Amino acid sequence: SNPTSPIKRRVSQQSIIEWAGQVVTVGGDAPVRVQSMTNTDTADAIATAIQVKELAKAGSEIVRITVDNPAAAAAVPAIREQLDKMDVYVPLVGDFHYNGHTLLNDYPDCAQALSKYRINPGNVGQGAKRDMQFSQMIEMACRYKKPIRIGVNWGSLDQDLLAKLLDQNAVSATPKELNQVMAEALIQSALQSAQRAQELGLPSNQITLSCKVSNVQDLISVYRDLAVRCDYPLHLGLTEAGIGSKGIVASTAALSVLLQEGIGDTIRISLTPEPGAPRENEVIVAQEILQTMGLRHFTPMVIACPGCGRTTSTYFQELASRIQSYLRHQMPIWKKNHPGVESMNVAVMGCIVNGPGESKHANIGISLPGTGESPAAPVFVDGVKVKTLRGDKIAEEFQLIVDEYVKNTYQN
Ligand code: SF4
């Protein structure tokens, strides 16, 4: 976590996810973790392992895979094996609905290969079967010493609990009051399930909770309430956030409010991928939310102006985007050899209006020539103008200056 962040995190227990000598902590003093989920058919072990690898490479610290049928459960050990062979150190969380109790029981190698189980209390059966099947899953978690996430979802709420609360409240209830009943049912479902898991022997610090809804204001109010009613680590995510900018904006709006209040120990951005868009985008968005809020640093940030009529060519956008990609691409190497580089800021500005001012505030900044300006690009390093670049090799020369700065400033 970032010790200089002004955000005071909610006090929570720490859940430990362990596998093959590796550990990822969630909650307590652990940084807010980024997680994601595959969308491959889990039964296709190779395709799933490749996507997990891509998500982990992009920065996902926990990856969830759906385990929805016997073929998927049978493939889990092979997925883990492939990842270990590729030196991909990321815990796999099995996402179970309806038949998790059977799959965990029938496929012990799957139960063992997973590092954590996600249980949706709304999807473990109804009536008398519900407690029995939930108990079977918790017994597996105890037997294999796996932490769990009790993940309640607005779209699959425990119908028995909802009906009970509606019975108590539905008479003359307004739509707003009914919404509050739904929210209360979500929270109670999570808390009662956690309580039951503890009664069945699961240590309290091995439980993470989530209560996902798809409306921003509902999510904020549900989590605010949940946060004061327990000290389990909380997983945040706006479920079914949507496609493209809508999904990104809605998730950012909801999660930022909660994170600013110190709520949230791990996050996932549930974006509907646009055709051809890489799955890793959800990881990048999650990292960017945490980084722009000052909670964590993952990769050097590019500060760029939006451009306007003073930027007459696309050169400025190209340079900003080229530098952003370059920084991301270099991070795995820099991270090993140049600790602290992830907090570096690089400004790429379109003209003299705000260019020099913004560039001076960044570690390195360049102000490109706008319309009518002399064809020169002043470069600032730690607030001091060190050079003026000209000609058609500005991008290459600026990149070299960035390289040099990283090598000289962030040393082992
Ligand atoms: Fe336009 Fe210059 Fe401002 Fe960029 S810095 S938005 S180019 S005026």
Automatic annotation (TrEMBL):
Gene3D superfamilies: Dihydropteroate synthase-like, Sulfite Reductase Hemoprotein, domain 1. Its EC number is 1.17.7.3. GO terms for molecular function: 4 iron, 4 sulfur cluster binding; 4-hydroxy-3-methylbut-2-en-1-yl diphosphate synthase activity (ferredoxin); 4-hydroxy-3-methylbut-2-enyl-diphosphate synthase activity (flavodoxin); iron ion binding. Binds 1 [4Fe-4S] cluster. Keywords: 4Fe-4S, Iron, Iron-sulfur, Isoprene biosynthesis, Metal-binding, Oxidoreductase. Residues 24-286 form the IspG TIM-barrel domain. GO terms for biological process: isopentenyl diphosphate biosynthetic process, methylerythritol 4-phosphate pathway; terpenoid biosynthetic process. The keyword Manganese does not apply. [4Fe-4S] cluster binds at residues 305, 308, 351, 358. The keyword Iron-sulfur applies. Residues 302-403 form the IspG C-terminal domain. Pathway: Isoprenoid biosynthesis; isopentenyl diphosphate biosynthesis via DXP pathway; isopentenyl diphosphate from 1-deoxy-D-xylulose 5-phosphate: step 5/6. It catalyses: (2E)-4-hydroxy-3-methylbut-2-enyl diphosphate + oxidized [flavodoxin] + H2O + 2 H(+) = 2-C-methyl-D-erythritol 2,4-cyclic diphosphate + reduced [flavodoxin]. Pfam families: GcpE, GcpE_C. Its cofactor is [4Fe-4S] cluster. Converts 2C-methyl-D-erythritol 2,4-cyclodiphosphate (ME-2,4cPP) into 1-hydroxy-2-methyl-2-(E)-butenyl 4-diphosphate. Belongs to the IspG family. This is 4-hydroxy-3-methylbut-2-en-1-yl diphosphate synthase (flavodoxin). It comes from Polynucleobacter cosmopolitanus.
